[in-house]
C-alpha cells in the first residue's frame, strides 16, 4: 500500500468509532421515545454502553494481536461489530439495545487497538505523531458529516436505519483490510498468548512512568470530549434551539479538531511533540477557565459557546496524536499489549468521566465548563509527572 492508502485505511478504521457515536446524535430523542425512555439523560447510556464495551475489550485484543498478528483479530472484531449493528435494528427494548451496543463496542475495540499497533509497527517517534495526525485529520471528516447523515436518515426513515448504515460501513471497511493490508507484526515480536506473558506485558506498560502518565492525561481529556458528545444534543437543541441546524454547528467543532490535526502533522517534525502538545495543554486550561468564568456569570450566548468549544477542540486536536505517540514510543516491542492497556485506560476512563459530566447536565452549559476546567488541571498534573515537573523539554531528537 502507498503511504496515502495506508493513512486512508487507518483513518477509516479509526472512524468506525466516531461514526458509531456521532451518527445517532440526531436520533437519540426518537430512540428514547420509541423504546419508552422518559429521562433524557438516560438516552446518553446508548453512547456510554458502546464506549465501555470498547474499553474493556481492548484488554483482550492487544495480547491477541501480539500472538496471532494484526489482521485476523481486526477482521474478527469488524465482523462482530457489523452483526451487532444489524441486530440492534430489530431490538424490542432499551435494555436489549444497551446490551447489543456493549457487544458492538467489544467488536469495535479491535479497530482502536490494532490500528494504533499497526501504525506503531510501521512508524515511530515524530514520524508516528505525523502519521497519526494525518490519520486523525481524515478521521475527523466523520464527526463533521455523521450527524448530518443521521439527520438525513431521520427525515426519510426511522432510527433503525441508522444502525443498518453503521453495519454497511463496517463491512465496507473490512474489504480493503482483507484484500490490501499486509501483516505488519514482525515475527520476532510475536508473544505467547498465556496469562504469564500477558501479565508481563501489562507490567511493562504500567511501570513505564512516561507511557502511563501520558495515557492518564489523554484519558481525562477524552472524558471532557465524551462529556460534550453525551450532552451535545441537549445543549445545542435543548438550550440553544438549533433544531435541524444541530449537525452544522456540531461539524464546526469536529472541523476544529481536523484543522488542528493537519497543523500538527505539518509542524511536529520541526518543533517536536512536546512543544506543540504542552503549549496546547496550557491553552486548553486557559480556554476552560475563561469558559467557566463566563458561564458562572449567567447564560452563555451561543456565539460565545461555539467559539470557546471550538477553541477547546482545536487544542485537543494538537494534544491527542502527540500524547498517544509519546505514550507508545518506549513500548514498540509490546505494541499490541501496550495499545491494549493504553486504549483500555483511555476509553474506559474517558467514558466514565464523560458519563459523569453528561449526567450532571442541568439545563445549562455550566456542568460542561466545570468538567472542562477540571480535566485541564488533571491532565496538566499527569503531564508534569511524566516530564519530571518540566514542560517543553524533549527527551531525545524525536521528542
TrEMBL record:
Domain Major facilitator superfamily (MFS) profile per the UniProt entry, residue ranges: 6-389
Keywords per UniProt: Cell inner membrane, Cell membrane, Membrane, Transmembrane, Transmembrane helix, Transport
A single Gene Ontology CC term: plasma membrane
Keyword set includes Cell inner membrane: yes
Membrane topology: Multi-pass membrane protein
UniProt-listed GO biological process terms: xenobiotic detoxification by transmembrane export across the plasma membrane
Protein name from the UniProt record: Bcr/CflA family efflux transporter
Amino acid at each position: 500500500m502507498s503511504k496515502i492508502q495506508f493513512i486512508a485505511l487507518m483513518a477509516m478504521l479509526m472512524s468506525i468509532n466516531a461514526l458509531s457515536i456521532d451518527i445517532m446524535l440526531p436520533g437519540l430523542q426518537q430512540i428514547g421515545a420509541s423504546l419508552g425512555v422518559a429521562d433524557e439523560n438516560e438516552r446518553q447510556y446508548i453512547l456510554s454502553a458502546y464506549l465501555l464495551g470498547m474499553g474493556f475489550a481492548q484488554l483482550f485484543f492487544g495480547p491477541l494481536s501480539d500472538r496471532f498478528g494484526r489482521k485476523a483479530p481486526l477482521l474478527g472484531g469488524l465482523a462482530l461489530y457489523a452483526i451487532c449493528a444489524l441486530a440492534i435494528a430489530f431490538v424490542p427494548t432499551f435494555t436489549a439495545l444497551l446490551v447489543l451496543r456493549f457487544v458492538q463496542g467489544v467488536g469495535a475495540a479491535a479497530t482502536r487497538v490494532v490500528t494504533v499497533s499497526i501504525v506503531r509497527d510501521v512508524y515511530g517517534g515524530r514520524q508516528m505523531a505525523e502519521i497519526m495526525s494525518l490519520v486523525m485529520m481524515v478521521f475527523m471528516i466523520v464527526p463533521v458529516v455523521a450527524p448530518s447523515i443521521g439527520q438525513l436518515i431521520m427525515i426519510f426513515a426511522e432510527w433503525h436505519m441508522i444502525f443498518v448504515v453503521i453495519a454497511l460501513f463496517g463491512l465496507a471497511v473490512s474489504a480493503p483490510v482483507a484484500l490490501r493490508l499486509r501483516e505488519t507484526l514482525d515475527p520476532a515480536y510475536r508473544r505467547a498468548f498465556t496469562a504469564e506473558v500477558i501479565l508481563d506485558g501489562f507490567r511493562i506498560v504500567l511501570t513505564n512512568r512516561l507511557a502511563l502518565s501520558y495515557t492518564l492525561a489523554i484519558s481525562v481529556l477524552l472524558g471532557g470530549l465524551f462529556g460534550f458528545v453525551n450532552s451535545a444534543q441537549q445543549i445545542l437543541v435543548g438550550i440553544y434551539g438549533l433544531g435541524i441546524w444541530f449537525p452544522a454547528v456540531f461539524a464546526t467543532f469536529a472541523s476544529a479538531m481536523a484543522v488542528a490535526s493537519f497543523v500538527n502533522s505539518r509542524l511536529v517534525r520541526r518543533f517536536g511533540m512536546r512543544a506543540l502538545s504542552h503549549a496546547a495543554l496550557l491553552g486548553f486550561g486557559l480556554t476552560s477557565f475563561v469558559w467557566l468564568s463566563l458561564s458562572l456569570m449567567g447564560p452563555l450566548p451561543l456565539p460565545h459557546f461555539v467559539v470557546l468549544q471550538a477553541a477547546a477542540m482545536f487544542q485537543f486536536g494538537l494534544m491527542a496524536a502527540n500524547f498517544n505517540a509519546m505514550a507508545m514510543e518506549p513500548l514498540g516491542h509490546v505494541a499490541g499489549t501496550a495499545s491494549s492497556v493504553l486504549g483500555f485506560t483511555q476509553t474506559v476512563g474517558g467514558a466514565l468521566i464523560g458519563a459523569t459530566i453528561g449526567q450532571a447536565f442541568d439545563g445549562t452549559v455550566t456542568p460542561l465548563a466545570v468538567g472542562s476546567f477540571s480535566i485541564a488541571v488533571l491532565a496538566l498534573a499527569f503531564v508534569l509527572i511524566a516530564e519530571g515537573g518540566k514542560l517543553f523539554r524533549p527527551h531525545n531528537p524525536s521528542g
